Amino acid sequence: MNREQQAALMRAVAKAADRVAFASLYAYFAPRLKSHLMRLGAPEDVAEELVQESMVTAWRRAATFDPQQASAATWLFTIARNKRIDRLRRERRPAFDPADPALVPDPEPAPDSGVDAAQAEARMRSALDSLPPDQMRLLQLAFFEDLSHRDIAARESLPLGTVKSRIRLALARLKGRLAE
Asked: Which residues form the RNA polymerase sigma-70 region domain (predicted)?
């Protein structure tokens, strides 16, 4: 079958949904497509499925065939190649595992944990409020603004040793208050 005959059959399929023309195309191209897919590494059963899918696509999209762009053979082999690529991508995609720890939501917190958190926060606020203002300010800069001791010393115009000792004293007082 030459290029002009293939194009004429494709036009008949596109314009009139000519089943006889499609049967001729199928009879001619199906074995060639299957051989090509098997040379690409597809097992025989997969190659047969891909030929079926390719020819169904050709039937449905026959109106998009343009003989000025490519021959019918090129068009059909491209469809088959794309079907093979799609199959490979689906096979390589990992299967969904509902037990995957990344997909399992965190358990709901226990009802009493909210009360515990609120009590712990109240104790922490009380302990922070008991600190002298200069120590409280340095803790805020160190922990809430994430400044280094050197940056705090420069900002507050204090010696570095003073900043370190005040933060250490504040943390010791907090520890003592929270342990009570």
From this structure: 25-93
